[in-house]
Amino acid sequence: MRSSQMKFIENFKEGDRINDIYLCKHRQAAVTKNGKPYENVILQDKTGTIDSKIWEPNSGGIEEFEAMDYVEVVGDVSNFQGALQLSIKRVRRAQEGEYNPQDYLPVSEKDVDEMYSELCQILGTVQNPYLEQLLAMYFENNEAFEKAFKFHSAAKAVHHGFVGGLLEHTLGVVKLCDFYCRQYPDLNRDLLLTAAAFHDIGKMKELSVFPENDYTDDGQLLGHIYMGTELVRASIRRIPNFPKRLSAELCHCILAHHGELEYGSPKKPALIEAVALTMADNTDAKLESFREVIKSAGDNNGWLGFNRIFDSNVRKTSR
Amino acid sequence: MRSSQMKFIENFKEGDRINDIYLCKHRQAAVTKNGKPYENVILQDKTGTIDSKIWEPNSGGIEEFEAMDYVEVVGDVSNFQGALQLSIKRVRRAQEGEYNPQDYLPVSEKDVDEMYSELCQILGTVQNPYLEQLLAMYFENNEAFEKAFKFHSAAKAVHHGFVGGLLEHTLGVVKLCDFYCRQYPDLNRDLLLTAAAFHDIGKMKELSVFPENDYTDDGQLLGHIYMGTELVRASIRRIPNFPKRLSAELCHCILAHHGELEYGSPKKPALIEAVALTMADNTDAKLESFREVIKSAGDNNGWLGFNRIFDSNVRKTSR
Amino acid sequence: MRSSQMKFIENFKEGDRINDIYLCKHRQAAVTKNGKPYENVILQDKTGTIDSKIWEPNSGGIEEFEAMDYVEVVGDVSNFQGALQLSIKRVRRAQEGEYNPQDYLPVSEKDVDEMYSELCQILGTVQNPYLEQLLAMYFENNEAFEKAFKFHSAAKAVHHGFVGGLLEHTLGVVKLCDFYCRQYPDLNRDLLLTAAAFHDIGKMKELSVFPENDYTDDGQLLGHIYMGTELVRASIRRIPNFPKRLSAELCHCILAHHGELEYGSPKKPALIEAVALTMADNTDAKLESFREVIKSAGDNNGWLGFNRIFDSNVRKTSR
Amino acid sequence: MRSSQMKFIENFKEGDRINDIYLCKHRQAAVTKNGKPYENVILQDKTGTIDSKIWEPNSGGIEEFEAMDYVEVVGDVSNFQGALQLSIKRVRRAQEGEYNPQDYLPVSEKDVDEMYSELCQILGTVQNPYLEQLLAMYFENNEAFEKAFKFHSAAKAVHHGFVGGLLEHTLGVVKLCDFYCRQYPDLNRDLLLTAAAFHDIGKMKELSVFPENDYTDDGQLLGHIYMGTELVRASIRRIPNFPKRLSAELCHCILAHHGELEYGSPKKPALIEAVALTMADNTDAKLESFREVIKSAGDNNGWLGFNRIFDSNVRKTSR
Amino acid sequence: MRSSQMKFIENFKEGDRINDIYLCKHRQAAVTKNGKPYENVILQDKTGTIDSKIWEPNSGGIEEFEAMDYVEVVGDVSNFQGALQLSIKRVRRAQEGEYNPQDYLPVSEKDVDEMYSELCQILGTVQNPYLEQLLAMYFENNEAFEKAFKFHSAAKAVHHGFVGGLLEHTLGVVKLCDFYCRQYPDLNRDLLLTAAAFHDIGKMKELSVFPENDYTDDGQLLGHIYMGTELVRASIRRIPNFPKRLSAELCHCILAHHGELEYGSPKKPALIEAVALTMADNTDAKLESFREVIKSAGDNNGWLGFNRIFDSNVRKTSR
Amino acid sequence: MRSSQMKFIENFKEGDRINDIYLCKHRQAAVTKNGKPYENVILQDKTGTIDSKIWEPNSGGIEEFEAMDYVEVVGDVSNFQGALQLSIKRVRRAQEGEYNPQDYLPVSEKDVDEMYSELCQILGTVQNPYLEQLLAMYFENNEAFEKAFKFHSAAKAVHHGFVGGLLEHTLGVVKLCDFYCRQYPDLNRDLLLTAAAFHDIGKMKELSVFPENDYTDDGQLLGHIYMGTELVRASIRRIPNFPKRLSAELCHCILAHHGELEYGSPKKPALIEAVALTMADNTDAKLESFREVIKSAGDNNGWLGFNRIFDSNVRKTSR
């Protein structure tokens, strides 16, 4: 495990000689205009990716490997048309233990364990005995769930697309809902917090785990909204005497949380908690998305160009 | 059971004295401009409904009854502002056995038993052993299901909103899909027919049974698309070794059968069978809707005015 | 001033004889089918309105009055087609001093003074010296503004359409924004809180004061988004050295706070604070709107019918 | 005519030397970065197209030719950036008779003559004497029409964009309509089948014939919906006593067959047959489009990426 | 012919006794709450319509008549719920010659003959010999066309729905186009003026003549855009050597003149003249619609309420 | 100042040696595949732009310069992939006085001074004393304004994006409005002409001056619609007794002149003059846009491909 002295991709500079382990995200054979075979490779660590070339794929130093392998590479960094490029001289597949997978995955900037504790603490205040039991099935002494939940992302691309992203987003939504309950006393706090806790639980089935983090077949065909609701309904059935009306209300909140049919919810919010959950989900998603825009802008204080999510040219605010 | 000699509402004429049993759909107390109390009542049989008034609610002949009761009424038919109206003189609640419920509900014009046989026969040609088992759980020797399925409507209002409507619509869609399979050999017939059989099964949970035939609480909050898919997924789990990919494909077809997100499907059709099912569902719905427009027009061959479903003025075609 | 013993409209019952002062919202002469003249009147107090009739407009007890007058009436409550109706026997215009205008206007259920204090306290935490000066021009020792701001509504109909509504909504939005700043540190708190404080300030020009509370000519032609922004820009010009970039950022937030061009903002949010303000405004508006739906439902726990704002049938949640 | 031994483009492999006749779809002069002139050429046969280069355009072996010429080429196949490329060494214009045009055009996979027979047979069952005469003007003993109709495509790109495509699509729609008539007896079969037969007849004027198969000037300015309707109306005028109402109904079906104004129909379907034709046209178009997606996927059973027509990621179904 | 001394409906006042001839637009039998038969009648003249009642339909003075008859009525004007109503005491069908149809139809406020002269004069400046011939077929010495064109309306309801309306609108559009040609020299004046002259010619087939002025069967099924284009294309075919490209350009302008597919044009404007015609048509339609709003407002200078065409509350401008 | 003998970019031909002054629009360092540094440069004059390369950036003849500098270059024109390219051999920054800026900016084809005179003359006919004063503040003896107004463009890209463009567009709109007033007497001419004169005045703040001609920070955040209205409102405040209602009407016209909320107007047109201004603005914009399409097509009389503004394939009309 070498992360302490590891050279991260965001620190590469033209002229560097690299000798370290990276995750191979992509590999494809190609041919130059002159008919000479070469290979396109994309390497990744938690700080970014770099386009790489193997110009002599048949040379002795180039061992077998494929996408999703961790590989030790030796190579040189150059600048091609304004972007850095790595010319790989030698490469070999690394063994488990030689690397720390956390170094190769985009991760939350926040502490995952602290976030999980905070989430459990808030959910621990739910009073309704049926909802309490339901939450306990997941968030109390369920190590397998805890481990998986902490590791999952909330998206393939867009916002919260990193390790811990599902947790970070869930916590953000739960906290907003918790605040709403203080400000709008008509809200049923137990119902709203429980719905917030589970609203994106279906993402654990929609997206495969890192490093792949891509849509599963079920994800493509059924989606996280359907699968999350079904999962919760199945858990509810295992709780004796869970009130039917409460069950429908909770599942409605999950089903309707995208707010509009055209965003993939098969029902529009019909309860005040469903409306509140939609607001919290949208607020956390939009503000995190803008945070990522700001972060990727670095120290550029000017206009950043048209942004598809915000349907507008955007820029950072003066401080 | 008096249906043979019963006087149906569609045959009422101004000046008739009525003395028969009808279903009370609605009852509400009211007051005339002069402060005199009276009651608004709507009576129904399978041929239609009639606005009725009880002008002397406190007279001896007016016994207790409420909405959804079958009541024997004595009254006179008059014409008020162009529509017939029944002035109720006497009314009493009828006992089970005095009437035949079938006389009071809108019913399919087709023979329900024949339609069910035809449906089972077509579904009996499905070859895939897993899909065959799944279909058998519902359509083979399941009397409770058969009875309920035959009795259900496919809608509160719009198309197929009558006893046997769910069966008639399901059969119509299955037959269209069966024909598609002959014309487009890329279609997986077993998958498509099974999806067609179950595509609206969730309506049995979304709508309460006749005579109420209204949205249930679950129907309002979760909808038939979600509930039907969940029901089929639960049944699949009881079939050993049901292939995961096939399960996802089948459930995707059900989930996506409204064709567009804005029509309440949380996923767009992503498989050719899902596309085909959308086409069949839409074709049967639209042509049945137009049939109902034509039927309700009687012998009016002129333009019938703007129709909301077809977003156009419509008329019958010359013959 | 008789509010202590006043009989409020929400307490009227069939058979009551009424003798009290109400606000006349509407008055119109009419003729019965038989050609007899009568008058339609709508009376209002802070608990609601009641349809009223003057059947003998030329009798001695009916004195001159018109819409927006406070009138003392004597009359009897009856039930017409399911709704209460007041038959006015005598009526005279009341004098200022005989009534308390606050009894006749829909008012916030919260204490207006407390809300104003809370608002000022939060705004008092703004640090940026230019924004601090701008806020002080309105929210510090400006009695005329304070009085007008406390009395204004935030809407003609829909949400917060009552005395104190503009204050209640502004406070709700400011508090949400304040919470956002704790959860999303990228937000510029000073900018966001200031924008929240002023976001609907243009409503003071768009809507006339109570009891009229209707669109002004300027409101119809220019709208509160334009007028509010212009007002703030004019105030900014009176603050020496106010940074041009900060001015544009603040005014952009106000201009863009409806979030979408089709909702009347001439610019889409292009800064993270503008996005946040949109979220807070929408959240407070939607949750208050649903609260009003719930309140008007009384103890009806069933489905309440299609609601235009939520584009769905809605109901209260189980408790 | 050498199709038996011809080497089709879909069979080209890296390293092949080619010596055969192909259709030149495109030719354009260019210059390398170093200022050396060369030529970009696209060659086509019925199995596909290949990017080609003439690196020595002024050499002796390169004779004169232009787009839409059939040319005999000698060249070598290489792989450039993952795609095959032909380096042309010699080229000469081929003479009519040296090649079979059918080898160079995308063609229906079905037998064109059999399809035409089947179409005529179904249309031969139309009973209405006026519609029968109208159909006969085109589909009975009209060799010029038959030849042209069999050769035409139904599209420039998208579905049925091949020789015989118009026929294949028309037959598909006619057969669906024929089936509808069995299932929905309200449909006027004679009217519907006739409308189906002519619904895309305007494509013969909208698109030029192969090998060009591109929009004509009239096609761009007037479109096939207008031109097809006008053509049928003109033919109707030559049939004595053709009923005016029937004429309007038939032409309405053609005019409205895209179903929605935004898809280019100037009228929404207002008759049940117009609705049915829209359904049949859409069903055949969508299922053929998906068939073409499946075919082009070869043996790829995974997700194929976002498809613009279906507005979704798509994949083949398990078998 | 009594128009000089005729009492126009816009001058009716409560208490008037009427004895004059009016056009019967509508007649329908009805029954009062008490079962007494009566009749609803709508009478019309060029100044408006009035709801009328025949309370004693079986009395001697009530002779036979039906909708679209001119009838002499004797009756009394009263005020019912704020609107005037005529109680008909006696009625008889009037004979041709007793009345002047022009008195009973809404008519242009401008002189029809002058407008026609002005139109012909402008069209007389078209130079292109083919377009000149085409225009001459309609606008030169064609009395039947001239009479019909002058009498036609341009709409059933909305703008220009009066005698002379088609002429007034056509002239308005032609004059705008003429001005455009002076300001934008890229425009082909001959083409644009000819297209303007014919752009709504299909309305003569879409709407029946006054007093009916309602959609014809062809109008409902095919629409004026299709029929107008077809008419012009048919006329073009009778002009030897009319250039094919010019024909397509002219007909494209007519076909595309609604500007958007969703407004019923099957093609979007693809030529600058088609764009210009769309602008002129829209400008004349919108400004005439607003003129009619202003006129119907009388001397009301306040806000007139939400207007569906302008999708806004509207009012008159200060002078 | 060398414009007379200057070689304009539109006249460059392959093989030319260039030695002249051009405006540098863009400069960026790059590296070839082989690691050799070079520079991408875009040069501009009023007739167009040309891609240029400095292959030897470190050679002696390459002096310092940056974007927006005027530079004297020596270089050779070649053809790269169908487009001309300039290989720069020597370059030096030019001094003010060596060049005429007008030669380097896209300019109106019309005479700017004549257009300004014509505009002032029409505006001089406004009678209303308040509007007259308002116009005079800008269009009478205001040299600074005149100079800036004449030099400004009306757009960054799309229509009228050249020196004098704002003037040319304003004049076009004013003249259309002037003509409307003759044809539609309901229009208040003084109000409409004044609104037309100022409708795009906010563009002077939204776009920076040439040669940059790009959105300003205020332009991005507030937009020309808001800023133009605010500017006019501020000027109005300096005119004693300017009627409040007239002020609101004028500013409404400016605010609403994009016609639809989704085009950035915060209010829909609610007055007939606002509707007229929308029509004039749209007409001038569309016809000028099409003129620019036609001009850039040169002598290509065929179809020009899909045009985003017109949402259609377009072509020139036959003459």
From TrEMBL, chains A, B, C, D, E, F:
Checking SUPFAM superfamilies in the record gives:
HD-domain/PDEase-like (SSF109604)
Query: Has the keyword Isomerase been applied to this entry?
Result: no
**GO molecular function terms attached to this record:** hydrolase activity
In this chain the HD domain maps to: 166-286
Tell me, what is an example of a GO biological process annotation in this record?
rRNA 3'-end processing
What is an example of a Pfam family matching this protein?
Answer: HD
Q: Which UniProt keywords apply?
A: Hydrolase
Under the heading PANTHER family, the entry gives: 3'-5' EXORIBONUCLEASE YHAM
This chain belongs to the protein called HDIG domain protein
Q: What is the lineage of its organism?
A: Bacteria, Bacillati, Bacillota, Clostridia, Lachnospirales
